[in-house]
UniProtKB/TrEMBL annotation:
Protein known as: methylmalonate-semialdehyde dehydrogenase (CoA acylating)
Species this protein is from: Streptomyces himastatinicus ATCC 53653
Presence of keyword Cytoplasm: no
UniProt-listed Pfam families: Aldedh
Keywords associated with the record: NAD, Oxidoreductase
PROSITE patterns attached to this UniProt entry: ALDEHYDE_DEHYDR_CYS
Region annotation (Disordered) ranges: 1-23
Top-level division of the source organism's lineage: Bacteria
SUPFAM superfamilies the UniProt entry points to: ALDH-like
PANTHER family the UniProt entry points to: MALONATE-SEMIALDEHYDE DEHYDROGENASE
Molecular function terms, GO-annotated: methylmalonate-semialdehyde dehydrogenase (acylating, NAD) activity
Length: 498
């Protein structure tokens, strides 16, 4: 059985706890791998190495830092397939989807390659006679990232490339469910020339997370995961005096107006609801059909759903893979089983789905629930599986009220040909990321990613300019070089500009 260790101080470290967690291949249900679970001492060792590395890394020139990042970008590019295979083996998503994840992570490495531009300070000359003022941004020190299972390569890459480009050193605690991709990312960073201790990976569970949150030498924490844990992370990090951004769960609505192209909308709904088996924080999990298009739209989605090919992620003919664990698969099935009793119409029931030759895999088919009441669990909870709810609304106003009364506000989308309606939607909707005829509006690397309400705790979004702000702190320097003859004299008054 393969063991995934920690990556500390530029090398593989077994750790001291002696504890391991299981890592499954979701397509077979077999446990092929185990992951070391860090003790408090292991986390302390990683933070100590990161702290030691910060002393030099924080002052390494921008050109040297970016030279390493460019090399890293090339190595990642060359290893796309290998990283995607690791993702598919432990997460289950199909290879093409895993490649997409790697590509979106690479985008942030490319952003980090241009960090010199982002870190340019500001200078005002002669703000007062003979006085100049400059604003600069400096790294924080050791920063930590805690990441979810659903994007084991991309989400870590939302964080550490920007953090280390800004001059910080990083301790990553990836999901214990699919740790191999993160570990490989750290190995490749070392191969690119990143000095020991700048990027560390500690694998583990709550023990490791809590130690990172409490550790006095960790200056900031980035978290991506479910809403209850995001809330916990924010509160505990703040209690321990840390800067924190904690991205949580979601329930993303796709509003379809009566003038929309319904084939285009149905294709997009299918892709965004069932891609990665619905295990995306930006998945569309609710379609809101406005006016009298509901029956036709539901039929179009159901027809397409019936044709989806579900199978192991390493089979090129599969369009959707299994769920992450058996327990999660059974929980998702529970929402479909309970939906009818709570007033929904079960149009497509994907539960009980098996794949020939993979009977022990964590597979489930896709489900489509229509006329789902806002009180049903399937509507209220984040299911995080291939279950699409359709809600009917008579008017745009009714639809937007429904969306805005959701406790989450990650992404949302409108499908329409009416520019005025789309414009109104983008201004009125309460969500951090809005798509107009785009179902999964994950921003490109040079814009920032983040939701509103229970989808993000903290004020800075992740990557882009917000990411640079999060991983740096401002300093303002006021300078005067007096002329040899200049005298200030004694004046106890508050300094005024002159
Ligand atoms: P999760 O919250 O269970 O785990 C995330 C991380 O927190 C993991 O590293 C895990 O080890 C750690 N963790 C779990 N329980 C903990 C506890 N009690 N104390 C301390 N640490 C703990 O999330 P997940 O199941 O891995 O990922 C799926 C969730 O992540 C979904 O809710 C999804 O919407 C969300 N997500 C959000 C975004 C976003 O950008 N907003 C992106 C991806 C995923």
């Amino acid at each position: 059985m393969k063991t995934v260790n920690h990556w500390i101080g530029g090398k593989s470290v077994e750790g001291t706890s002696g504890n391991h967690g299981p890592v499954y291949n979701p397509a077979t249900g077999a446990q092929d791998t185990r992951v070391a679970l860090a003790s408090v001492e292991d986390v302390d060792a990683a933070v100590a190495d990161a702290k030691a590395a910060y002393r030099s890394w924080g002052t390494v020139s921008l050109s040297k830092r970016t030279a390493i990042l460019y090399k890293y970008r090339e190595l990642l590019d060359a290893h796309r397939d290998e990283i995607a295979e690791l993702i598919t083996a432990e997460h289950g998503k199909v290879h093409s989807d895993a490649l997409g994840e790697v590509a979106r992570g690479l985008e942030i490495v490319e952003l980090a390659c241009g960090i010199a531009e982002k870190l340019k300070g500001e200078l005002s000359t002669q703000v007062s006679t003979g006085v100049d003022v400059s604003s600069i941004r400096q790294p924080l020190g050791v920063v930590a990232g805690i990441t979810p299972f659903n994007f084991p390569a991309m989400v870590p890459m939302w964080m550490f490339p920007v953090a280390i480009a800004c001059g910080n050193t990083f301790v990553l605690k990836p999901s214990e469910k699919d740790p191999s991709a993160s570990y490989r990312l750290a190995e490749l960073a070392a191969e690119a020339g990143l000095p020991e201790g700048v990027l560390n990976v500690v694998n583990g569970d709550k023990v490791a997370v809590d130690r990172l949150l409490e550790h006095p030498d960790v200056a900031a924490v980035s978290f991506v995961g479910s809403t209850p844990i995001a809330k916990y992370i924010q509160a505990k990090a703040v209690e321990h005096g840390k800067r924190v951004q904690a991205l949580g769960g979601a329930k993303n609505h796709m509003l379809v107006l009566p003038d929309a192209d319904l084939d285009f909308a149905a294709d997009n709904a299918i892709n965004a609801a069932y891609g990665s088996a619905g295990e995306r924080c930006m998945a569309v999990s609710v379609v809101v059909a406005v006016g009298d298009i509901g029956d036709e739209l539901v039929k179009k989605i159901a027809d397409r759903a019936a044709k989806l090919r579900i199978g192991p992620g390493n089979d090129p003919s599969s369009e959707m893979g299994p769920l992450i664990t058996k327990e999660h698969r059974d929980k998702v099935a529970g929402y479909v089983h309970g939906a009818a009793a709570q007033g929904a119409e079960v149009v497509v029931d994907g539960t009980g789905y098996t794949v020939d030759g993979h009977e022990d895999g964590f597979f489930i088919g896709v489900s489509l629930l229509d006329k789902v009441p806002a009180t049903a669990d399937a509507y209220r909870d984040e299911i995080f599986g291939p279950v699409l709810c359709v809600v009917r609304a008579e008017t745009y106003d009714e639809a937007i009220e429904l969306i805005n009364s959701s406790k989450w506000g990650n992404g949302t989308a409108i499908f329409t040909r009416d520019g005025g309606a789309a414009r109104r939607f983008q201004l009125e909707v309460e969500a951090g990321m809005v798509g107009i005829n785009v179902p999964i509006p994950v921003p490109v690397g040079y814009h920032s990613f983040g939701g509103w309400k229970d989808s993000l705790f903290g004020d800075q979004h992740i990557y882009g300019n917000d990411g640079v702000h999060f991983y740096t702190r401002g300093k303002v320097v006021t300078t005067r070089w007096p002329e040899p003859s200049e005298e200030v004299g004694i004046n106890l008054g508050f300094p005024k500009n002159h």
